[in-house]
Amino acid sequence: MIVNQPRPRTLAGLAVTAFLALLFAALPGHAQESRLPSIGGSGGGLIAGQQESDIGQQVMVSIRRSAPRISDPLVYDYLSAITYRLVPSAPLQNRDLTLALIDSPAINAFAVPGGIVGVNGGLFLNAATEQQFASVLAHELAHLSQRHFARRMEQQETSAPLTLAGMIAGIVLSAVTQSDIGFAAIAGTQALAAQNMLAYSRAHEQEADRVGLDILASAGMDPRGMPEMFEIMMRQNRMQGNRLPEYLSTHPLTQSRVADTRSRAEQYPDEKIRDGQEYHLMRSRLQVHYAPSADVAVETFEAYLDRTDVQRNDAIRYGLSVAYLENRQYDKAVDILEDLLARNPGRITFQVTLAEVRLAQNRMDDARALLKDALARNPGNYPITHTLARTEIADSNGAAAAEYLKQLTRQFPAQEHLWLKLAEAEGMARNIVGVHRARAEYDVLMGDLESAQRQLRQAQEKLPAGAPQRQVVTERLAEITSRLHARANS
Length: 490
Hints:
Blueprint: H1 13-22, H2 50-66, H3 73-86, E1 98-102, E2 109-112, E3 116-120, H4 122-126, H5 130-146, H6 148-156, H7 161-176, H8 188-198, H9 202-218, H10 225-239, H11 255-265, H12 277-290, H13 294-306, H14 314-326, H15 330-343, H16 348-360, H17 364-377, H18 382-394, H19 398-411, H20 416-428, H21 432-445, H22 449-461, H23 468-489
Helix pairs in contact: 1-8, 2-7, 5-9, 5-10, 9-11, 10-11, 12-14, 13-14, 14-15, 15-16, 16-17, 16-18, 17-18, 18-19, 19-20, 20-21, 21-22, 22-23
């Protein structure tokens, strides 16, 4: 069962029209109307390169500050893997993407200049197949690759990308948080100006559909997943009794668009592509996450297993093990996971989840041994390393946890929660300089450069002159100070 979030609060007067016109039309909400903008990049005209990057960074700061996020390393690792399976087939100029996993059961996804791609947890709940899920990502990558946003800006002959970045951030936040948060950034006449720049034409949506189908096929996935996903969205609108409002006219999700996409998809070879198991494992994991309670999650997955056609379905059994974990029925969770591992030796998701159960049982040595063996076979793996760091923190081994977290921050420097965990581990290890440095990087990602500057100054003061680490801190401090001066003078 899935938690339904409340509908967004009503906004008044002109702001309502401006807000609704800016929301992304192609992705209706899971249990409420909630749409995110899908925004392309620059075509090399009025905005490009560094400006695009600045827009993306500003939007990510706003998302980090205000949008609910899922930090589950298993789910994030899957999202990263499926996205980068598609990326080589997308005609993107910049393939260095930043992924945002939003904690909401609504069907939503968005793309922002600077390579920001966001996905709601609810997309996993509603896409019945991996092909359907991937089709939404492919559509977003298509918008970025075709740089639709820049085309709109050039049509408007505007050159204020950083001002617009604040508007984009407000739009995204108002959508993903289901509230008015961030809406002040796009109030009044500015919102009307942004409306003209962000509204997609039918031609842009059709182009994104066409390019997205090519991306899917080239990546070895089934293009038929796209019309299937569109039909799910249309069906949900009908079930909710919602009539598509007028503001969808510039980027409509209509029966004719579904029919056109299906016709195009049927032109690709029908290769009967099968889903990867990992998608369905993550889908089960998130079904537990969004269940109203652990008890309900257990009841739901036990009912699934009562059906004779799914009794040996590993994804259902895995979901039940996660539900048992959440419901503190640890022995039952262990029984399922050990059986799954016996039949799927080395499956990382099962190993990590079993370690999570051992961690919940305070059996630190068992969790550590399991994870270290898994890491030896999969060096650098994100979920394994992340769970090892959790285990060491739970066992008060700050120095060991810090070593794992330093590896992760090198791999994923834009994941702010890793820097916060690193600061915690360094504090546990009594490495005060390490605490200041980790907190500084966290503050940078949160857009608080003044706090980052203070943290680095404190780190600098605690290091002796001539120490190699002091030189590193001094260089980073100079960089942050330069950014603060540039911001003050802009």
